[in-house]
Every structure is written in C-alpha cells, then in structure tokens.
Amino acid sequence: MLRKILLTSVMALAGLGMAAPVMAQDGPLRIEITDGVIEPMPFAIAAFHDEGGAGQYLQQVQQLIAADLTGTGLFREIPASAHIARPASFDAPVSYEDWKAINAQALITGAVSVQGGKVVVKFRLFDVFSGQPLGDGMQFDASTGNWRRAAHKAADQVYARLTGESPYFDSRVTFVQETGPKDARMKRIGIMDYDGANVKYLTDDSALVLKPRFSPDGSRILFTSYASGFPKAMMMDVNSLGTRSLGEQPGMSFSPRFSPDGRWIVYSLEQNGNTDIYQMDAASGAQRPLTNAPSIETSPSYSPDGRQIVFESDRSGSPQLYIMGANGGEPKRISFGDGRYGTPVWSPRGDMIAFTRQVGGKFHIGVMRTDGSEEKMLTESFLDEGPSWAPNGRVVMFTRVTPGGDGQPRLHSVDITGRNMRPVQFNGAASDPDWGPLLP
Amino acid sequence: MKTIVKLAAIGALLTIAACSRPGSQGGPLVNDPYAGMNGAGAGAVGTGTLPGTAEYFKANVGDTVLFQLDQSTLTPEARTTLANQAGWLNQNQGFSAVIEGHADEQGTREYNLALGARRASSVQEYLISQGVQAGRLRTVSYGKERPLEICSTEDCFMKNRRAVTALRSGAGM
C-alpha cells in the first residue's frame, strides 16, 4: 500500500530559513480551470536525485509526474535541456534565479529511492516568481509493483496546489474491452489506472457485459450481464471477482448504479416492454419502483448528497433529462434543447450534470448546471456517449465510436472547458468507462 | 403452398442432416433472416426444408419484422409477417420462441436497451393476440449490441431496427 509523510522536518533541516511550513497561499500561484486556460502554465521538474537504488524508477517517476500534469492541458513542461542548474541535493536551497531565467513559474524538485522493496518518492513544489515553497514537501512510498501510484500521488499534490481543485490522478477506471466484428462483438470488463496503465480483466468474453460502475469505495463493480441469456444487473467484488445477481426480477434489469453512500442501488427494470427506475437496498435486496410511467425511464444517477436522482425519460416524446427526489415523486425536467438527451451523470462536486446529447445528426458530450442552465457542449462526433466524472468533477471520460462497418469505440477524456480532449492511452477498442474514486 | 411443401419435403430428406447445426440452441438461430422473405416458393424448393422446422420458419414464414426510427409500433407489413408467425407457431406446438428486440446505433446504449425491449414486447403482444400461448414466448433486448448490418447509414440502420422471433425446441420457456 501507499504511505504519505509530510516532510516538514526535512524542510527545517534544509536550511531554507523557515521555522514552520509555509502556507504560500497569499496571492498564490494558481491556475483556474474554469477560466478556460489558453496558455498552459510553464513548470520545470529539476532532475530528481537518486537517494539510493532508484534505478529505472528515477526517470520513470519524473516522467509520470510530468505526464500527469501536462495531460491536463493546464501545464507545459520546460524541457530539461533548458535548465541552468539543479539543487545539489533534495534538501539544498533552490536558486530561484535559475528558474526565473527560463520562465518556469512552478518548480518541482524530488528524490527517488528504493528501500526494502518500496519505491520512495519525495517532492517539493516552489512558486518561482514569489520565491517560496508552495506547501510542504511530501514523501510517498509504494511497493515497486505500485510505483506509479507514488508518482500519481506526488503529481496529485502538485495539481491540487496549483489549481485549488481536488486531485484525481491516483484513480482507476473500469470499462468494457471490445474485440471481434461489429455484429458479433465480444466484451469483457476491465480495470485500469486513469491513464490506461495496469490493465486487468475481470470477466472473460463468454457473455456480453455492459456498463460497469464502481461502488463509492471502488471495491465492487455493478454491471449488466447476458450470462443467463437475458440482461441482468450484477455485482462483482473487485478483489475476489465473486459475482452475484441483484435479485431475480422478471424482465430485464440493467444500468445499475450505487448511491454515494453505497447503501442503495438504482437501476432500470423492464417489465412487459416498459422500463422504469427501481431502487434496491444493497444490503437486504429489498426493492421498489421510483418511477411508474408507460414511457422509458433509465440511466439514473444520484446527486453527491444522495437526495436527488437525475435520469432520462422519453415521457415528453423524446428522451430528456429529469430530476426527482431519492424516493421518487414528481420529476422536474431540466433539458429543453433540440434533439435527444441521455445518460446524465451528476458531478461528484454537485454543481453540474454531464450527459449525452444527440442533435443534428451528431452526438455530443455536454454539461449543464443542475437546474439545466449554462448548457455547454464539450465534444462533437459521429457518436460520443456515456460520460463519467473524474473524482474531482473537472474532467469526464466517455466513449467515442468511429462510423462504418469497421467502426471502433475508444475511450476519450475532456475537461469541463472542452479545450483539452484526448484519447485515453489504451491499446484497443473500449467503451463504457466509469471513473472510480480517488484512491486512499 | 401445399405443392411447395411436398417438393420441399423430398429435398429435405436428402439434406436434413446438413441442416441440423450443432449448438443452434444457443445464440440467434439465423444468419440471414431476410433469406426467402420474397418469392418464398422457389427458395423453399431449393433449401429443401421441412415445414415443421426452424429452418422452414425463417426461410418461408419470416422471423424478422422491422421498425421505424424510434418506434415500437408495428407496421402493416410487420403485422402480416407476425400473423404468419402466429399461424406457424399455432401449428407447431413443439416450439417456443425468444423474441429479440434490436435498435440501430443512433442512441445511447441504455436507451436502446429499453427501446429494444419495447419492440420485442410489441411482437410478443401481437403473437399472443393471434392465439400463441404466452408461456411459449419470452423477450430479450439486445439494444444496439447485435446489429445485423454494420454500415453506419440509414440503409443499415433500417435493417437493424428489428425484432427477431428465434425459435427454441420445447413447448414452454
């Protein structure tokens, strides 16, 4: 597992002239995501120090921290070839002038060692132009097999201090890997780091599986399986891979999702051709309908306080987004644009809802306020669908499908400004991403 | 039709072994549900299937009905096909059927699952109204997961918006 240690004592030893950790948040070096960053903030990573046996990890840790940061589109790394000097050791004072000269606004220093089968990563962050550290130095260690987590944790700290947002790099995504031709596709549930590393498969491809979704703590995955020949909502334990059906309802059950406290599961249940939203007590299995209409009600997603549910319904004649109380009741429509809206997901920050919108022969991933205002399209393509929020509610991952008989689904991510869209580094066809929680 | 049946029966004796495919209980029974939908007479002689077989059902009765965009109501053509399906099912009590509802790829995965279920249910209700016992019919939706045609234009989409009556041996589900 992963441990983190504050390096305040180390800082005192370093002779940086500070008796206490500096909270350099007055007039802080800060980049605002919602401002729509046009020019990424330049930063430098001073070559990390090998504090014993770092080997390959010395470079790999640095490169991963840089990749996490530049992957956000908010930061630009100044290459090492431009650096003038680096601190003599991890604890040596920083010569701010050397970094000002190359216009690095933020500086990351660090050290890597391998001790007793653990990779130890230390870092500090500096505001170059104000000439002071940004927060405490920190140390993370992880088993060598988990070295990426230690690097992600360090990058998460840098990201959080420079943006004021919650971190999200040390997180995982569950998804569906797809193989075979479009009319006989085989699918299996996978899990991977947010950046596409450490892919593992949790099911074989003997049964069609759809829409995996993490429990709030990431230990379980809800999904839909055709293993019985008919679609059924299932739950799997991520570690043991033990899988069970969520009750034996008549009709098909699909699209299950946990409440934020993990106590409830909402899902779609079809009976005699009509689909409504049901709620199940995750512990007892007791279930009850939350909607009761002849129209299609599906894709439920809880607000982060667990009090409301956003879902999709075609009761108006075309699929639109609605919000109802967590116990059901009269829903309020929140989408009013042209076309069709679906797959709404409530941001973990509570401020926005991401969705799929189909209009004018194109698909979009969009976001809106929870009252339906400030609707904004983030993407456009032949087929984009199924957004899932990063744990900090500032990025969504979704499926983009290319057209045609050999069309393939690929995972992409986009930030809420819509400016930074990129494919997820995964070698192959994949769909239905669900972004899990920030790991502890 | 009687003449056709007799001719078909002769051929069937020669080819029936070749028609029984191993593993056909599992997935969809048909590769091309449109085979024999038009001008079924000549096709029946050529394929040489017995009238009481699943092969005959798909080739001569037609196992597939199509739907308009976003619709689950049955077209007049679909009703004609389904009336024939019901007639066949009423005559061949040794079969039950799983009605598969499908959607084209325009639409989200979840909505299309629900839409496919509506379509399958429309077919089920119609067959029951034509005298098929409810206990012999079951529905499943594949949403957009199992397109028949794989291009991304209306030519293919219209063939993918379908419900397929897939026969199973045995009178009940």
From TrEMBL, chain A:
<comment type="similarity">
    <text>Belongs to the TolB family.</text>
</comment>
<feature type="compositionally biased region" description="Polar residues">
    <location>
        <begin position="289"/>
        <end position="302"/>
    </location>
</feature>
<dbReference type="InterPro" id="IPR014167">
    <property type="entry name" value="Tol-Pal_TolB"/>
</dbReference>
<keyword id="KW-0732">Signal</keyword>
<dbReference type="InterPro" id="IPR011659">
    <property type="entry name" value="WD40"/>
</dbReference>
<comment type="function">
    <text>Part of the Tol-Pal system, which plays a role in outer membrane invagination during cell division and is important for maintaining outer membrane integrity.</text>
</comment>
<keyword id="KW-0574">Periplasm</keyword>
<comment type="subunit">
    <text>The Tol-Pal system is composed of five core proteins: the inner membrane proteins TolA, TolQ and TolR, the periplasmic protein TolB and the outer membrane protein Pal. They form a network linking the inner and outer membranes and the peptidoglycan layer.</text>
</comment>
<dbReference type="InterPro" id="IPR011042">
    <property type="entry name" value="6-blade_b-propeller_TolB-like"/>
</dbReference>
<dbReference type="Pfam" id="PF07676">
    <property type="entry name" value="PD40"/>
</dbReference>
<keyword id="KW-0132">Cell division</keyword>
<protein>
    <recommendedName>
        <fullName>Tol-Pal system protein TolB</fullName>
    </recommendedName>
</protein>
<dbReference type="Pfam" id="PF04052">
    <property type="entry name" value="TolB_N"/>
</dbReference>
<feature type="domain" description="TolB N-terminal">
    <location>
        <begin position="29"/>
        <end position="133"/>
    </location>
</feature>
<dbReference type="GO" id="GO:0042597">
    <property type="term" value="C:periplasmic space"/>
</dbReference>
<dbReference type="InterPro" id="IPR007195">
    <property type="entry name" value="TolB_N"/>
</dbReference>
<feature type="signal peptide">
    <location>
        <begin position="1"/>
        <end position="24"/>
    </location>
</feature>
<dbReference type="GO" id="GO:0051301">
    <property type="term" value="P:cell division"/>
</dbReference>
<keyword id="KW-0131">Cell cycle</keyword>
<feature type="region of interest" description="Disordered">
    <location>
        <begin position="286"/>
        <end position="305"/>
    </location>
</feature>
<dbReference type="GO" id="GO:0017038">
    <property type="term" value="P:protein import"/>
</dbReference>
UniProtKB/TrEMBL annotation, chain B:
<dbReference type="GO" id="GO:0009279">
    <property type="term" value="C:cell outer membrane"/>
</dbReference>
<comment type="subunit">
    <text>The Tol-Pal system is composed of five core proteins: the inner membrane proteins TolA, TolQ and TolR, the periplasmic protein TolB and the outer membrane protein Pal. They form a network linking the inner and outer membranes and the peptidoglycan layer.</text>
</comment>
<keyword id="KW-0132">Cell division</keyword>
<dbReference type="GO" id="GO:0051301">
    <property type="term" value="P:cell division"/>
</dbReference>
<dbReference type="InterPro" id="IPR036737">
    <property type="entry name" value="OmpA-like_sf"/>
</dbReference>
<keyword id="KW-0472">Membrane</keyword>
<dbReference type="InterPro" id="IPR006665">
    <property type="entry name" value="OmpA-like"/>
</dbReference>
<keyword id="KW-0998">Cell outer membrane</keyword>
<dbReference type="InterPro" id="IPR006690">
    <property type="entry name" value="OMPA-like_CS"/>
</dbReference>
<dbReference type="InterPro" id="IPR050330">
    <property type="entry name" value="Bact_OuterMem_StrucFunc"/>
</dbReference>
<comment type="function">
    <text>Part of the Tol-Pal system, which plays a role in outer membrane invagination during cell division and is important for maintaining outer membrane integrity.</text>
</comment>
<dbReference type="Pfam" id="PF00691">
    <property type="entry name" value="OmpA"/>
</dbReference>
<keyword id="KW-0131">Cell cycle</keyword>
<feature type="signal peptide">
    <location>
        <begin position="1"/>
        <end position="17"/>
    </location>
</feature>
<protein>
    <recommendedName>
        <fullName>Peptidoglycan-associated lipoprotein</fullName>
    </recommendedName>
</protein>
<keyword id="KW-0449">Lipoprotein</keyword>
<dbReference type="InterPro" id="IPR014169">
    <property type="entry name" value="Pal_lipo_C"/>
</dbReference>
<dbReference type="InterPro" id="IPR039001">
    <property type="entry name" value="Pal"/>
</dbReference>
<dbReference type="InterPro" id="IPR006664">
    <property type="entry name" value="OMP_bac"/>
</dbReference>
<keyword id="KW-0564">Palmitate</keyword>
<comment type="similarity">
    <text>Belongs to the Pal lipoprotein family.</text>
</comment>
<feature type="domain" description="OmpA-like">
    <location>
        <begin position="55"/>
        <end position="171"/>
    </location>
</feature>
